[in-house]
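Hi Y.,

Following your request, here is the sequence exactly as I used it, all 492 residues.
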Amino acid sequence: MQTKRAAALFAALAALAAAALLHNTHSTRAQAQTEAGRAIVLPCITVEPADTKRSFLASGNVTASQDVLLSAQIMGRVDKVLVHMGDTVQPGQTLVLLNSSSLSAAASQASAALASSAAGYTSAQMAANITAAEVKVKLAEAQAQLAQSRAALQQAQARYSLALAGPRPQQRAQAVQNTKQAEADLNLASRNLKRMAVLFAQGAIAAQQYDQYRAQYADAQARLNSAQQAQSMADQGTRPEEIEAAHAALLQAHAAVKQAEAGLQQARINLQQAAVSRQQAQSALAGVQQQKAALLSAQINSQYARITAPFSGVVVKRLADPGLVAQPGAPLLELQSGPMRLDVSVPEQYIGQIHAGASIPVNLDALPGKTLQARIQEIAPQGGEYSHSFLVKALLPAGSGAQAGMYGSLTVALGSEKRMLIPWSAVHSEQGMEYVYVITQHNHARMRLITLGSRIGSSVEVPSGLQPGEKIAAAAAAGLKDGVTVEPQGGN
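Below is the corresponding structure, written out as tokens. Let me know if you'd prefer a different format.
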């Protein structure tokens, strides 16, 4: 850091020394001229701050509003390129054809595989539906059979237990009572029948009424016989053959229950197999869907063999010829469309002066002397992380003659300010320093070093070195040197 400061100090001292040497040289010559008594007639101006417009030039390249690189989405050999540079194309127009023989074969193969999968699914679905219906019926029948077998087993167990236990005392007493009641009913029926027989013989009652009493007597006789048998069985107890028969019926009922349980178990197994059949049908359906996707992919790939124009425009580059093996993503054609625009980068300190939709002057290097009125189309909402500049897109007027790739600039107006301007002709340069001649009150020309700023037309800005109201030589003149006497013309 100290080395840089020393170097800067040395350069400043050298400049001052050179200025002093130049001043002494010119002063010596001017003194000799003054002694000769000759004054130089010199056009002069008075320096005053002037209102000037400030602007910033942002440069960039002309591009088309729509500019795309068309590329293949699949790998394939280029069969035909149907356009050339400069051709105008319409939306959907075929531009490039790739070899599609293998793609067509793949599509046919996928179609056949889909048909096979669909047939397999139909068969599996029908089998699953039929199996499920049958299994549900068989399962319901097996459940009902098991319920009936268990009920029959309970009855058989009850009969066998009763046979083993034999009649109870209450049953014997009831049997005796039933027999007595049956005997009393028979006696009553016998007496009634005898009376009715006398009346019937006398013709006092009809035959039908007499037959009713005869039926009542026969029924009473039958009830007595049944009651006597029941009483006899109660008195004698259960016979061995009856016990054996009840036991055999019980064993048979047990076997029926086991058989019904086995049937129910088999029905449940069949139900699980039906679920497997449904899963197989679902798997077959998934296979159909997979084959549909494969067919769709093959059909799309077949369409990719035909590259078409996405919009109307002009072919500006042809990057492929027949025979080339196109790679996915590799550009084959460049297509442009729409009005031209100028894309420039504007520093962050000036971006607030630009607004979307505003008219702005543009100059193109390829069109010298012609200023175009462009319209601000877009302003990037975010600036560059390192450049701190914003992308601005200016739409050029139709018929401007602008073409993509041209270089140009737009003028950003920054308002106005007072600046010290002098004619460029008043500036002198010698040994890398700029200076002017200031006219003193005694009409002597004095050399003064100045700092130059921006050049505006035929004038130049002087940020330092001059004060408002000072008079300077407006142009060079023969014999004009430091210290000479002049006769000012103008500048009052």
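The domain at 55-66+337-414 is CATH 2.40.30.170 (Elongation Factor Tu (Ef-tu); domain 3).

Thanks again,
Q.
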